[in-house]
Amino acid sequence: MASSNKLKHRSRRVAMKRKRKQRALIVIGVAAFAVVFGGSYSALKNYVGKVKDDVICDNIYINDLNLSGMTKKEAQKALENQKTTDESKTVTLTVRDEKVEAFLKELGFSGQEDEEQLVDEAVSYGKKGNLWMRYRQMKRLEKEPFVIDEEYSVSRKKLKSLLKEKAGDILQGPENASLSRDKDGKVSIVAEKEGEIIDYKATVKQLNDDLNDNWKHEDFEEQVVIKTEKPEVTKADLKDMTDELGAYSTDAGGGERWTNLKTGSSMLNGIILQPGEELSVYDSTAPYDEEHGYAEGTAYENGQVVPSYGGGICQVSTTLYNAVIYAELEVVERHPHSMTVDYVEPSRDAAIAGGLMDFRFKNSYDTPIYIYGEIDSDNQLRMIIYGKETRPKNRTIEFESETLSVDQYSVTYKINSSLNFGAMQYTGNPHTGREAQLWKVVYKDGEEVSREVFNTSYYQKADEVIEVGTAGGSAAAISALESAVATNDSTAINNAVAGISSSSGSSESSGSTGSEE
Known about the structure:
With 517 residues, the protein is of the alpha+beta class. It has twelve helices and 25 strands. Helices cover 35% and strands 29% of the residues.
């Protein structure tokens, strides 16, 4: 029994020693691990911290632009310089056998909209995340570059504008079926033709793809994508639009005004209005500038005739207005001129002034109508509405202009100190004011069956202005003439000029009298 107890006591001592030894080994192991880990962590931290937080690590690119070692500000500047260089590169666009050259800048070349975000990504690579992630990113840079993709693109709008300007005549586009009118007034249908146009959407996609597919930032060539285009209006569409519903013509005259009448009428020619569809003459013929075929003519402004690009377009709208009312289409908007015009009777006009006055009408028929406009061989501006006639054959209409009142213009005298003393210069464009109305008269079998007021128009008067010169006169003579001009009495003015001239007997005075026109 005693030996058994001794044996147990010895076993416990051995077990306790073993446990103490194990604890010691664990402590030593933990300490060793801590030393190793601490050393490794310190080494990792030193490794990933060798590049400053605001400096880009080596071997980082945006596309093929090397940003190694740059700060954010330096990288942004490098991107700007790269873009400036890229914009100066030439792209040669081939349209059939013709070549059109343009700088990328002309095509609206651009990179990613938020380039700062790209730079931020470059700066933060190897700087974000836990220590091990940063370590792995930086070690990877030693083996391969980190490339941030920036998408390049060009503007479809700018490409289209450039090719229209420089290659507009290379391709023969589609031609709509149209109406042709011979000298005897006989109408025939001209068949449509298919044509070729530039596929701008496909061309831009092709350009963008090439810019982003290993482009070396050099000049390059691109084949423009061309597609076949069918015309919008066919011969079949016009088969029921050959009846003349309403027509009117005015004398086209000549000079710059003739050019504007030709341009404006050609823009309206061939327009088809579906039932219920409305047309604005301003929207269909503007803008009025040299680029769109207009010349500098004249127009009314504040009671005066002034130079204006597109001057004469009101004659186009007026001629069309009369064709429209004979066709009995619905007039949506119409305005008289501020003063009477000489190419139609009062109340037959329709003025155009951008943003202020327009002539608009609606196709009130159940079938389409076709607008025909030309200056014919007799130099007549002719506007015709074609469609399918549904009105009774024994019914006709006419329009009659009636002047209700007349306001005669006055003569106003003004001093002009730059004219020779007593000389007179006529300025302004005198117009008699009028109030007028237009009657619509309906006949059946040649007999009048109705008469109604179709519109009423008021036209301002514009006074004639005569400027009287005072240059070279004595102080007393000028004072006397100014007093006479203030009365606006022609007799007093002429007496003042004549009295001064006869007393001085100067050649200047006799010359001044001879300059009156």
